[in-house]
Amino acid sequence: MKQLIAWAVKNWQAMNVIMVGVLLLGAFCLTKLRRDFWPDFELYVLNVSVVYPGASPDEIEEGILEKIEEAVRTVDGIEEMTSSAREGLGSVTLELDPDANQDDAQRVLTEVTTLIGQIPSFPELAEKPDIRLKTNFVTAIRVAVMGPKVPDSASENSSSSEEEQELQNWDADEARAEASLALRRVAERVRSQVLALPSVSVADLVGTPDYQIDIEIPEQTLREYNLSLQSVADIVRANNVEMPGGTLRGRSQEILLRGSDKSTVGEGIEDIPLVSEPGGAVLTVGDLGRVRDEFSVDGSVNEVNGQPAVLVSVETTSADDLIKVSEEVREYVEREKGNLPDGYTMIAMRDRSTSVKNRLELLSKNAWMGLALVFIVLALFLEMRLAWWVMLGIPISLLGACLYMYFGGQTLNMTSMFAFLIALGIVVDDAIVVGENIYAHREKGKSYRDAAIDGAYEVMPSVITAILTTVIAFAPIMYMEGRIKRLTVVLPMCVGAMLIISMFESLTILPSHLSHRRSRFLDVLGYLLYPLRPIGKLMEFANAGMSRLLAWVIDRLYTPTLRWSLRNPAIVLSTLAGLLILSVGVVRSGMVPFLLLPKIDFGFITVQVTYPDGTPVEVTDAATKRLEAAIWRVNQRSIDEKLTPDPDGLVKAVQRTVGSSGDEVGTSISSHVGGLFVQLNDIGERTVSSNEIVQMWREESGRFPGAEAVAFGATPRGPASLPIEMRLMATGDNLAQLDAAIARCKAKLAEYPYVSDIATDTRQGKWEYRIKVRDDAKAMGISLADVAGTVRASYYGEEVMRLQRGRHEVPLRVRYPREERNTLVSFNDIRIRGAERVERPLSEVAEVDVQRGYSEIRRVNQMRSIGVVADVDETRGNAFNVVADLKANFVPQFEQEFPGVELQWAGQQEQTEETVNSLTLGFLFVLGAMFLLLTIQFNSSWQAILILSIIPFGFIGAIVGHIVMDIDLTLFSIFGIVALAGVVVNDSIVLVDFINRRVADGLPLHEAIIDGGRRRFRAVLLTSVTTCAGMMPILLERSKEAQVVSPMATSLTFGLALSTAVVLVLAPVMYLVTAKLAPPPEEA
């Protein structure tokens, strides 16, 4: 290996070419890296959905879900199977193993498709199962297309007659329908134009239901002309056709024959003939009824800033650059909003790129500041020339890693930027060790060339071992279990790449630069920076002063402390062991709570209000308007109290929805559900967090009597979900216990004053009329199928056909008018036709039983499941303590009270347990691998144990740091502790190696230990100080964008502050103790 260093020194020009090549290519790749908030990852999820129009959740569970679950339960590779049944729709979601690849996903898709195709029977009216492998799309930005507001109803005049009022309401309905259709057409045009943008690959509409055409004919009219809904459907079906008729082959050409008289719009459907009167007049669909060419649901609301809106959602794939996509869409909105029809406008909202850009810019700014601080520290402790070449290893390592990321298909994201920050101080450690040792050899009188070769070669084994152990220390992060793994797996890969590149640079490029007295590059740089020469002189003066100060510290402070510690090893070891035990106790007691991921302020806040199923839409609409008024009052308060310099306040846009739990209206309206989505201004432009704004909003909104839940939220539901999430599961006879078990859990959570937004993922559904045919009606030939079919046609509608209109498939149905579908009198008066063709009202042939089920049924792994979730006010308490108390004092009692109900922890708690358990297991393997490497390096298992035993003491400083900074332990705190372990091991390896060399030189043990500590004091201190300097800008950053990164910087900075002293004192003491157990090796 010495020949490699000598070759690099001899061929210094080749080393320069490699260095410049890495810097230029890395910088080019950095500009081409796609940018996103989190790394790309493949989430393989298979979804099976079956539409069963008009069916209740119970019917869908029994007739669809249980059959599909039983059919696919044996398919290999499925990690979890979840199902849901709600009115008219059943779906089964199959989540594949996290390590599954594209081939595995295709295999599962094929097997599932085959097995579902072999199911003997689904309900007759259920549609064909839709089986899809979900694509991992992420919303980048949305464009809200807003139209003119239409009055909710016709203006009422007390002097108007009832007939006039009905006519006014009819006109208002027509106006609203026409306005909705016109808004949809404008939004469709905007979508097409957005899709034409160069960077946009996926865009679709949200906030609007599907098209639907209804033929509405009153029951009285049907009886007058001896018609039924079924017969009307048959007539329309026969007269609205387009049928190929073959080919007419002439002598010179072929002509296609087609029978075509098919209309796809309401106006054409109205002209279809239905009956002929005795006088010969033909009555059409429009003569006997009304054709509504509108949407599939009625009563839903989707508004942005008080105006009716349809949103164009722009999605990104793994091949798209989030920031570039968002910039193009924003430019389009500004350019084209003036070209929309009068009364229409559009705005960009939900722009995820804003958070990404702000945080990436923050990390980049602090990285540059950290780099500058590292150089200043190096210049203070080493000569300017040496400091420059040592510091140059940082950009070489970082840009070299960009090369790896670009060709490896990675993105520039929060996790990769974390990796850069972590490595900022670490990658320079090996260069410091090599450079400082070359400097020491030169002080012995060696030539520049010999000092470079001998100095690098002397520490090469230690450097290689130190780098490899640090790379291994990050390995458990690659093998974490759960969804968090997908967000963090890139971190050890990037850190590993930078460390390997740094090792190559420190053992080849750095010695080649330090093997010459003068450098043309530095000479040219000196001429260019000649005006800054006084600063250089000042740095030389500071360097000389720092050298004298360092010598004084070593002689007057460190050496006496080390001698005393060697004489009193028991006191040193017991004191540090006590501090370590105390630190562990602090964490386990909950004084420093652990959160998997901190709440990230994305600038979005939400609320969802839920009333009992069946609540009129007017009630939900009024509640959401109250909530909207409350957030605008909060906005005015922010202006009055100067919580933001923005004169318009905190709120940028408010989206209000009624009829769905989000902004996507489905095929049926959920009139009891509504919500608001509020976009805030940028986090750097306000003095309050989104969590604080939510609290203000909650207080301003007041109470909502009758509502089952009013859930406020400050962040999107990320991979770790809510802080508290329980899953109650039962099967068979135990289902009856679920309701009582849910109530028990909700009541217990309500006892904690800082727990809020307690809710379940299912609730009581609508009242159901369950129809049973009377015995005397059966004798008349009337079957349940006759009754159910007629009732279904009357209310849901008799489907005539599906019409293709552009890119949309539009169902055409025949049913009763809206007025008749909304009264009990009309229900009882439905005419049922028996085998004798005699019609009788429903009330004469059937009995009706009134029952109530769930609005939605959820199942997990073939068991009925109900989730109980809650949020925690982190300023008053933490989820860690709540869950610990529940497990100790509530769960045992709960299991005795409800033996048939299984309680599982889900969400953040489940992810935390998976992550901590997998990391713990991974670190055990890491310790084994480190032990093997260190034993090979030192030829001593005792010295390997010596170095590994120092690692836990870095934990003390990390915990102290979190207490001082008043922040919670998070997953990123653990990343900082991992990096800390790498630095501690690096310093310990070099220190132990030098002590071994002094022992081999024949010095007495005590003197060898003291001399080795004195000799490596500067290198150990320098590696720690440079790492702290790299982290200092982030640690001192007060902006809210730094809330995710600060735990990592806290662990690393405070941990190193204590670990430096631990390594310089504890390592020599441990060396002395192990030397008494086993003598040190004769050769290093």
From TrEMBL:
<feature type="transmembrane region" description="Helical">
    <location>
        <begin position="919"/>
        <end position="938"/>
    </location>
</feature>
<feature type="transmembrane region" description="Helical">
    <location>
        <begin position="388"/>
        <end position="406"/>
    </location>
</feature>
<keyword id="KW-1133">Transmembrane helix</keyword>
<feature type="transmembrane region" description="Helical">
    <location>
        <begin position="362"/>
        <end position="382"/>
    </location>
</feature>
<keyword id="KW-0472">Membrane</keyword>
<feature type="transmembrane region" description="Helical">
    <location>
        <begin position="418"/>
        <end position="439"/>
    </location>
</feature>
<dbReference type="InterPro" id="IPR027463">
    <property type="entry name" value="AcrB_DN_DC_subdom"/>
</dbReference>
<feature type="transmembrane region" description="Helical">
    <location>
        <begin position="487"/>
        <end position="510"/>
    </location>
</feature>
<protein>
    <submittedName>
        <fullName>Multidrug resistance protein</fullName>
    </submittedName>
</protein>
<feature type="transmembrane region" description="Helical">
    <location>
        <begin position="570"/>
        <end position="596"/>
    </location>
</feature>
<feature type="region of interest" description="Disordered">
    <location>
        <begin position="149"/>
        <end position="171"/>
    </location>
</feature>
<dbReference type="InterPro" id="IPR001036">
    <property type="entry name" value="Acrflvin-R"/>
</dbReference>
<feature type="transmembrane region" description="Helical">
    <location>
        <begin position="945"/>
        <end position="965"/>
    </location>
</feature>
<feature type="transmembrane region" description="Helical">
    <location>
        <begin position="971"/>
        <end position="996"/>
    </location>
</feature>
<dbReference type="GO" id="GO:0005886">
    <property type="term" value="C:plasma membrane"/>
</dbReference>
<feature type="transmembrane region" description="Helical">
    <location>
        <begin position="12"/>
        <end position="30"/>
    </location>
</feature>
<keyword id="KW-0812">Transmembrane</keyword>
<feature type="transmembrane region" description="Helical">
    <location>
        <begin position="459"/>
        <end position="480"/>
    </location>
</feature>
<feature type="transmembrane region" description="Helical">
    <location>
        <begin position="1017"/>
        <end position="1036"/>
    </location>
</feature>
<feature type="transmembrane region" description="Helical">
    <location>
        <begin position="1048"/>
        <end position="1073"/>
    </location>
</feature>
<dbReference type="GO" id="GO:0042910">
    <property type="term" value="F:xenobiotic transmembrane transporter activity"/>
</dbReference>
<dbReference type="Pfam" id="PF00873">
    <property type="entry name" value="ACR_tran"/>
</dbReference>
